[in-house]
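seq:
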Amino acid sequence: MNKTKPLPISKRQVWDAYKRIRANKGAAGIDGQTITDFEEQLEDNLYKLWNRLASGSYYPQPVKRVDIPKANGATRPLGIPTIADRIAQMVVKMHIEPELESHFHHDSYGYRPNKSALDAVGVTRKRCWQNDWVLSLDIKGFFDHINHDLLIRALHKHTQEKWVLLYIERWLKAPIAFRDGSLTHPKEGTPQGGVISPLLANLYLHYTFDVWMKRNKPQIPFERYADDSVPRAQGIV
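struct:
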């Protein structure tokens, strides 16, 4: 870590984050820069990003809005950050994820290390034979309607590191760029498609659903995969 910088972000953290983003590939953001383009001046690009992150001068670019067709004819809105912004988000994710993981509910399966949709389906299938009532829940437009104030309050429970909170707040407020060139400034939500978004979504639902269920309905088991959940019970819920 370079001690002349005010924020404790090392070049190694940025390098490790870049390697993960490179492995994930993904489309270009609003600047049109692909991972191949980014790598044409890799050392310079990573140094500039680290310098901005470690000095506190980093601000994300607008998030590119893309509508992905769904099987039912509707579309799913995705927000695609630039390559540099994805690397920055990965730096924060790698730093804070281990702390959050230590608190997450054991029956939360979505977007978590060493857990998968198959794990969720396996537990769901087993419990379906043990209970009379099964409910399937899906929160409509969940990623687009996460309350920023409540999310930041949840983050404060797990970290007091100003640089983590600073950059997450900037990502939440980053403008959304539409195909026609227009911009919107979100008051709620976190773009589905961002690197940090699944982790933030799990943190939000940890308190608004998982902890609530444990406190108020401890007799009802459930499996949750992001904003999809399957609670069940004997008799009438």
